[in-house]
Amino acid sequence: MTQLLIRDLAQVVTPSTGQAPLRGRDLGRVEVVENAYVLLDGDRIVSVGPMTALGALTGSREELDGRGLSAIPGLVDCHTHPAFAGDRVHEFALRAGGATYDELLAAGGGILSTTRATRAAGQMALDAFVARHRDAMIAHGTTTFEGKSGYGLDRETEVAQLAAIRDAGGIPTWLGAHAVPPEQPGADAYVDWAIREVLPEAAAIAVAADVFVERGTFDTAQARRYLEACRQRGLALRLHGDQLSEMGAVPLAVELRARSIDHLESTGADGVAMLAASGVVAVLLPIAALYLGRPMPPARALVDAGAAIALATDFNPGSAYCESLPVVCTLACTQLGLTPEEALAACTVNAAHVLGLDDRGRLAPGLRADVVLLDATDWRHLAYHLAGDVVHTVIQGGQVVRGPA
Ligand code: NIG
Ligand code: FE
Description:
By secondary structure, the protein is of the alpha/beta class. It contains 17 helices and 16 strands. It folds into two domains: 3-74 and 360-402, Urease, subunit C, domain 1, CATH 2.30.40.10; 76-354, Metal-dependent hydrolases (TIM Barrel), CATH 3.20.20. Residues 79, 81, 240, 314, 316 line the site of fe (iii) ion.
């Protein structure tokens, strides 16, 4: 295996070595090594340290000049919806004129308008769309992404979405309970049908299941039925909860020991306390709050209470049309009251934990060789440079996939 030495980096930065998911003060503890190197061998990290500790190396290796750059772990986007056709620019304009997200969905638009386009697309087109969004994520420093289905809402298209995500290198989540499609008589009947007709095939591809608990989509009884059936098939459980209203999704997530509950823009003090006392990770999606003009989730309260948090883009055509985790980091620092250190841990090691991947998210010997080089001598430009061009080079599994080859 060829070794790759990234030398003379201004900084090498990694979240602390505590047990994942990092909570409380541990979330904000990063290690910064100045004038440093990272040594990779194949798809693994061999060592990380100051240049002064780099002993004589034997054998052949490639070298990357890290002068003027800083290194962080590859970013992990643990919540995206990249498998869709069409766009919602028309609804974006309507919302700019005052229409609301839930009104558009209730009128048969929103998720359901994307469902119409996605059903008509076919596997090859879906593959191409997911690959395009995956490439945009890589350009912004994302080396691992999760992707959800949920725009098919019929067997063939749900499975096609999951396959497209898997084949693009993503971690597939079956969002079978995203909305009720028009051909189904109601949410109860749809959940029963999806469990019977789609779950067996979805469970062969997906690693997790997800449900949108909200007024007009699925209530907690329907969500419980769906999630319990998915768990029996070996899927990890996740929920979209408390986005527009508090509907009991937090107690359900805690009771079912879900991997995560995502959104939480409407979560109050009781929900914060409940999550802090649980193992459920709160996945915060500030782009969705910004995009829909909703309140930001109570990130600071969650961290201070001891809850585990992660950050993600929620990339999708309706509520968050943006593939950039650096933008999420800027919003975390300006809108959520998090520090750059907390933001970094939340979209690396903690996000990887949500996906059940404890082999990445930090720069340490033995972990996957996913490294992002930033075009800055201070790594905090990641969050500081709003929508800036801060990602210089992306190394995924030891391969340079973006930047100087
Ligand atoms: O996480 N809220 C539900 N699902 C997505 C939006 C999907 C869409 O609008 O197309 C979300 O925001
Ligand atoms: Fe989402």
